[in-house]
Structures are given as structure tokens and as C-alpha cells.
Design a protein that fits this description.
This protein is of the alpha+beta class. It has a single domain, classed as 3-Layer(aba) Sandwich (Aminopeptidase). The chain is built from 5 helices and 7 strands. It has a 7-stranded mixed beta sheet, with helices on both faces. A hairpin with an 8-residue loop joins strand 6 and strand 7. Helix 1 packs across helix 2. The chain is globular. Coenzyme A (COA) binds next to strand 4, helix 4 and helix 5.
């Protein structure tokens, strides 16, 4: 397996792979994303026009089997910046970790840990970020599509040094498998200091 990084406009080379992995992996609980090429093109465009964006890509042979992305929060949508702005926090000092998607057969080998390390190292190299942040979707405990034995990633994230910050809440819209249109989903931020 090989881990590669792509920055800014360079992400164009792996855009189709990123979209494919997102649509495949995010169909699973708790995302339940019914992905479309149109949504993916709109979403991924932000990375191409942000010079400091990052994609960490895992290849097995030539096949892309996992990916993780990040970018400065200030390049992100108003919905993602809003909770920070509402509290007078400095959006410019926050590096936003957007997603990690790994095909099931490649899980449990340390790649999820590596995704955090690579993205945090990139943020530190850029030199002007003091916080790393991501947000996670909130689903009710009794959600009908929650698989038996589903293990939330909270403990994994805490071991990476992140703390859940319920006061930093927002909503992101996408179309769930059971929905006929894009609707907002409640999201909560997790933060860690980069210093
Ligand atoms: C989240 C996700 C990327 C994690 O990937 P992963 O590669 O399975 O995670 P890792 O193997 O790095 O880590 C999981 C745990 O297994 C441990 N582990 C297992 N095998 C390991 C190995 N060979 N080397 C190092 N760590 C290993 C890790 O230490 C970690 O435990 P810890 O929290 O106690 O440190 C993957 O589960 C996934 O794609 N999930 C679906 C999408 C998703 O939920 N994404 C996150 C939000 S966008």
C-alpha cells in the first residue's frame, strides 16, 4: 500500500476517485448519503480552488482504496464557519478536517490514524493554524438504519486528542437514502489544539 498527498489544484488527478469513495463509503450508517455526481462536483470544486487544501490518498497497487481531505476552514461554506463566527472565534486559525473514507477491507491497519497525522502535519507546516476541527453527524440512537453492533468513532477520535464541542453545532444538507431531496442534518464539531 502507498500513501500519497495531493495539494490544491493537484487534487484534480484524484477527484473522480474521491467522489467514488465518498459515494460508496458514505452510503453506510451514520451518513446514509445517496450521492450524486452533481453534488460531488459542487462539493469537490472547493478543493481545487483552495491552494492549501490536502487529499491523502491510499493506493493498493494502482487502485485508490482510501482518502482523507482537509482545508482551511475559511475556504469552507458559511454553514461550517458559522458556529465559530457566532462565538467570535478566529476562523482563520482553524484547519478543517473534512472526511476520511476507507473501503472496509483496508480498515483496522492504522490508515485512519495516518490520515489524522498527515492532515495535522500539513496544517502545522502551513504555520498559521492553531486548531484542527472536524464535524460529525448526529443520528438518534434508535435510528432504523443503525446496524446492530454499530460502534461510534467517538473513542477513536478522543484517542487522537479531539474533544467534542456541543456548543459548536451546525447543519449540513445532503440527500439521505430515504429522502426525496437534500435536507439539513445536525452536525457537531470536535476540536484539538495543534500547538
Ligand atoms: C474512519 C476510518 C477511516 C478509520 O480507518 P481505520 O484505518 O480502520 O482506522 P485505524 O486502523 O487507523 O484505527 C482504528 C483503531 O485500530 C487500531 N489499529 C488497528 N490496526 C492497526 C495497525 N496495524 N496499526 C496501527 N493501528 C491499528 C488503531 O490504533 C485504532 O485504535 P486506537 O483508536 O485505539 O488508536 C474507517 O473506519 C472508515 O472509512 N469509516 C467509514 C467512514 C467514516 O466514518 N469516516 C469518518 C468520518 S468522515
Amino acid at each position: 500500500m502507498r500513501v500519497e498527498t495531493y495539494v490544491g489544484e493537484g487534487l484534480r488527478d484524484v477527484l473522480a476517485d474521491l467522489a467514488r469513495l465518498r459515494v460508496t463509503v458514505f452510503r453506510e450508517f451514520p451518513y446514509l448519503y445517496d450521492g450524486s455526481a452533481e453534488y460531488e462536483a459542487r462539493y469537490l470544486e472547493t478543493y481545487l480552488r483552495t491552494p492549501e487544501s490536502l487529499a491523502v490518498i491510499v493506493r493498493d497497487g494502482e487502485r485508490v482504496v482510501g482518502a482523507s481531505t482537509a482545508l482551511p476552514l475559511e475556504a469552507e461554506t458559511p454553514e461550517l464557519r458559522a458556529p465559530f463566527e457566532a462565538r467570535g472565534m478566529d476562523v482563520g486559525s482553524v484547519f478543517y478536517l473534512a472526511e476520511s473514507v476507507l473501503l472496509p477491507a483496508w480498515r483496522g491497519r492504522g490508515l485512519g490514524v495516518r490520515f489524522f497525522e498527515e492532515r495535522e502535519a500539513h496544517a502545522r507546516r502551513l504555520g498559521r493554524f492553531d486548531t484542527a476541527a472536524f464535524c460529525a453527524v448526529e443520528r438518534p440512537a434508535n435510528h432504523p438504519r443503525r446496524p446492530a453492533g454499530y460502534e461510534p468513532l467517538d473513542a477513536f477520535w478522543r484517542r487522537r486528542g479531539y474533544e467534542k464541542r456541543p456548543e459548536l453545532a451546525t447543519a449540513l444538507s445532503w440527500r439521505d437514502l430515504d429522502e426525496d431531496a437534500e435536507r439539513p442534518k445536525p452536525m457537531t464539531f470536535w476540536l484539538r489544539a495543534l500547538t
